[in-house]
Amino acid sequence: MSELLKLEELPGYLKDKDADYFKILFDSIDEIKRKEYVGDTSLVGGVFLITEEDGVVNQFHNICYELRLVVVFDWMNWEVGIDMLDDNNATLEGLSIIDYCKLITVALRGHRFSEGYLVRLFKEGRILKLLLGMKTALET
Questions:
Q1: C-alpha distances in Å from residue 132, one per residue of 3, 22, 53, 86, 105
Q2: Span 18-35, average pLDDT
Q3: Does the CA dihedral 117-114-4-94 come out positive or negative?
């Protein structure tokens, strides 16, 4: 796995990347849309416990790190982003690629500290919304 980029390095890293660079990530959109069930989580004492994790969740995790979309920044204090991911009504549209990468970071780092967080984001459709918004932003 490559070293994580710092947030301030991300624009320079992404400037020459086009939609083809992200193809491996966006190829999972159809599979995510078809799934009615992605893993299982239980909330016990304020902590998510995973009882099952689907392959598409692991695939997303690995691809995001492979593409270097997870960045070093103070994600735990990025309340706007955390609120966007935790709000079922948030559209996650019209953001910059940098903000999409920051949201990916929040999702993946949050999962590391609260196992099951990423699975919940998949189950509730927010990872799908994130990917669709990111794809649209890259195509325009």
A1: 26, 12, 22, 17, 17
A2: 89
A3: positive
> What is d(CA 26, CA 30) in angstroms, rounded to the nearest whole number?
8
**What is the Rg, in whole angstroms, of the alpha carbon atoms belonging to the chain?**
14
Rounded Cα distance between 109 and 69, Å, is: 12
pLDDT > 70: percent of the chain: 86
Mean predicted confidence (pLDDT) in 14-43: 80
- DSSP assignments along 9-78, one per residue: GHHHHHTT--GGGGHHHHTTHHHHHH-S---EEEEETTEEEEEE--HHHHHHHHHHHHTT--EES-GGG-
- Mean pLDDT, residues 44-48 taken together: 56
